Amino acid sequence: MFDIGFSELLLVAVIGLVVLGPERLPVAVRTVAGWIRAMRSLAANVQNELSQELKLQELQETLKKVEEKAGMETLSPELKQSMDELRQAAQSLKSGYQATTDSVESELQKAKELTDNYDSAVKDAQTTVSQTQESDPDPEYAAKMAEVVEEPASTKGESSPEDNVDAKKNPNQIESEK
Question: Is the pTM of this model over 0.70?
Fold first, then answer.
């Protein structure tokens, strides 16, 4: 239909990856696929509705022509019965047309909800990313905090690193040093 080749699809995929990023690209692809599905079903429903409407108009025109040519009084009971059946068929087509219209409206509502869900998911993802970036401390800051936490432990009267070295020595070596 649009005569799109593999190289064009690859180019679109690369541009989408660069613009949207690897996190949002699958969500965007699913959303676009949903829109395409909704549009195809909408087009099929509209096409069906138009064909039903045309059939209904032809049926009504045929009924009017028959009524004009021959008065209802001059028709035989079988023809009157078939005319009534045709009217009922026309009425059922009208109700079917209305049902199809209602289904198209519901499909449009679903497409709108899908779009709204996508928009809210994108906003949620953006706020989550921004909150994550804000809450992640700077690595240098984290290293400084670790040093601050380690300093009070060595100043509280606990053994110093030199004491730890003496504790690792053999008791015979300590006596020989004295």
Answer: no
